[in-house]
Amino acid sequence: MNADSTSPAQKIILDCDPGHDDAIAMLLAHGNPNLELLAVTTVAGNQTLEKVTTNARAVARVAGITDIPFAAGASRPLVGPQLIPDEIHGDSGLDGPQLPEPSVPLEEIHAVNLIAQVISENEPGSVVIIPTGSLTNIALFARMYPQLVERVGGITLMGGGHHTGNMTPASEFNILADPEAAAIVFEESWPVTMVGLDVTHQVLAVPERMEQLKAIGTDVAQFIAELVEFFGASYMKERNYPGPPMHDPLAVAAVADPSILRTVHAPIYVETQGQHARGQTIVDFRRTWSNNDPSGLGVTDDPDFEAPNTAVAVDVDAEKFWDLLVDALTRIGNTNF
Ligand code: BDR
Ligand code: CA
């Protein structure tokens, strides 16, 4: 949505695999006035590429998104086996609510080429990519268009974590789904912010939060309530959580309002081997750097130390996050999808 304040909206590309929380992330990206959603690209993850792409376009209709390009990307990870978490997102990838027929067209070009097009057409540094699925498209983009890497304003991704996993004790789904791609993304020169499980597990859509969203009283809020009902039941059954984590919306929220997260700059490595640790994101807290918060973990004050271009989210202002989501949904209103 267009900014109604004096500062221009941050331009973003959402690279996603809807997925319940991806769907909410897209609604937030559309409804937040500090963001301008330029394109949506899809990657296989929560379900097959075909299913997540149809879902993304159906969610566009729910949101009332009509005028931006949608393109499908990678249908398989670069190297490893394809993982599909249907115990969490169901057979469609977006089980729960009745989905409308998509109305936005699907571009004929590959997602990676669409990303390149959008990055080329906009001012260097002006577009942030928000990946909320596995990183296959983004790694392919870096390899196919190395000359465009420095034009990307940043990558704020949902994935990984520094103290726990969800697929294995060490690994989070988006990273384990394509660890080789993730390794490429973290090794590139662009600024990367990792919004991992350490913070997304602090924004659970518990029943009281859902009451707050439902009170908005629109058809879109009702759609989210139905998504969360299914997603929450999965999390209760599989993990015994009181509410499903708002993983992907938190990455979008962090771009809309960076003060929602406390981040620490530190080198981040992706384990691509390992008997128990494939897909783990390893944050080197021995060498951290926090420009705005001297209480950051293990911060150095060595003036010769160069801040790494990767940062990890270590804390979240959950109240601010929920306010942002409620505000975005209120702005979207009824779409009569
Ligand atoms: C991530 O995995 C997916 O199932 C969710 O959509 C989210 O992006 C959480 O681990
Ligand atoms: Ca996702």
Features:
IUNH, binds beta-D-ribofuranose, 12 helices, two-stranded antiparallel ribbon, alpha/beta, hydrolase, glycosidase, Inosine/uridine_hydrolase_dom, globular, 36% helix, 10 strands, Inosine-uridine Nucleoside N-ribohydrolase, Chain A, 337 residues
Describe what you observe in this structure.
The structure is a single chain. The protein has twelve helices and ten strands. The mean pLDDT is 93. Strands 3-2-1-4-5-6-10-7 form an eight-stranded mixed β-sheet, sandwiched between helices. The radius of gyration is 18 Å and the shape is globular. The chain has one domain: Inosine-uridine Nucleoside N-ribohydrolase, Chain A (Alpha-Beta Complex), CATH 3.90.245. The chain is an alpha/beta fold and 337 residues long. Beta-D-ribofuranose binds next to helix 1, helix 6 and helix 11. Pfam families: IU_nuc_hydro. Keywords: Glycosidase, Hydrolase. One of its GO terms (cellular component) is cytosol. GO terms for molecular function: purine nucleosidase activity; uridine nucleosidase activity. InterPro entries: I/U_nuclsd_hydro_CS, Inosine/uridine_hydrolase_dom, IUNH, Ribo_hydro-like.
Q: Mean pLDDT across all residues, rounded?
A: 93
Strand order of the largest sheet: 3-2-1-4-5-6-10-7
Q: How many structural domains does the protein architecture include?
A: 1
Kindly state the percentage of residues in helix: 25-40%
Q: State the secondary-structure class.
A: alpha/beta
Q: Write the CATH architecture name.
A: Alpha-Beta Complex
Ligand list: beta-D-ribofuranose, calcium ion
Shape type: globular
| CATH fold group | Inosine-uridine Nucleoside N-ribohydrolase, Chain A
Run of helices and strands: EHEHEHHEHEHHEHHHHEEEEH
Residue fraction in strands: 15-25%
Number of helices: 12
- The CATH superfamily bears the name Ribonucleoside hydrolase-like
In total, the number of strands is: 10
Return Rg in Å.
Answer: 18 Å
CATH C-level category: Alpha Beta
Q: What is the CA-CA span between the terminal residues?
A: 18 Å
Please mark out the parts with pLDDT under 50 across 5 or more consecutive residues, or reply none: none
Main beta-sheet annotation? 8 strands, mixed
